[in-house]
User: What shape does this take?
Amino acid sequence: MINTSHALTYLYLLIYILLSSGVILYNKWVLSPKYFNFPFPITLTMVHMGFSGVVAFFLVRVFKVVTPVKMTFEIYATCVIPISAFFASSLWFGNTAYLHISVAFIQMLKALMPVATFVMAVACGTDKLRCDVFLNMVLVSVGVVVSSYGEIHFNIIGTLYQVTGIFAEALRLVLTQVLLQKKGLTLNPITSLYYIAPCSFVFLFIPWYMLEQPHMDPSRIQFNFWIFFSNAVCALALNFSIFLVIGRTGAVTIRVAGVLKDWILIALSTVIFPESAITGLNIIGYAIALCGVVMYNYLKVKDVRANQPASPERNSERVSKDWKFEKKSSDIYVPNDGSNIGSEMKGDEEAPLMPSSRLSHIGRTQVNNQTNL
Assistant: This one.
């Protein structure tokens, strides 16, 4: 019989899978000219950033749910601004891809996330080139190439947008480790939104003014307040569900949930969007890529377990304590193992309010130190 604690954990995982899939499908529906017909991805992303920034401000400054970190101008200028720039870029390119390629194909391309992160980590000196990991990356790349070859409605522009967004996200993950963690600074989901969302909004304003604003004719734009509001609320809820999942599971469980979500999303997208038809070659290529991703995750989990302290009970208690929403909780965390947060898992660009993957983009090392459910 499943006890209450496990039932609650599975409920949080289900909520995460539903919200993550829902946000992706919702974004596609809003942006697609065949459906709601709002082909302005930068504008949609700015709506998300503005909404998340306002909500985070009220939670931090008005309701005082959490205490803001001790942010200096130096940290903001050297850490938050560059991270926000690449975060904004990854969302911009990722959302633009919805205009050109199907949701199913986008999910298959996202299998490249470990490859992009590994390449960026090696280039920045935060990870070492290893033969076993390199072979896994080659396997993933071959799988994505096969899947792309089998795509019926292959579009080079949409593919380039998505791949560029993946590499921008990978570089943001590496910068998070290099810049923020070296300064001993970690942010929870609320403080992350509080500092990064407004900065990302400003970065997005420049391409919006140059690329989308001249083409936005108010008489032709279909605007519905409740659609944009509910879209932003769903994205914000996704970020908080990620926080809840982090507090109750380990890295392995979240990886498995992420893979399950990808398959569910690919199947759902073919039903909701008939143009998202997939071929047998798509499935074969994605399966090959997924084998590489699974092997890569196994190697990373093995590395984390090898670096674990002798007392896992104490370490688990430390992780749980670090992730609590306490006003007096420390906002400073110094990782002990120096593990690479960026190379742990694929990125979820579909979570527009939260920089990150299936884990909070900052403080991921805290969770990776425990691998049991």
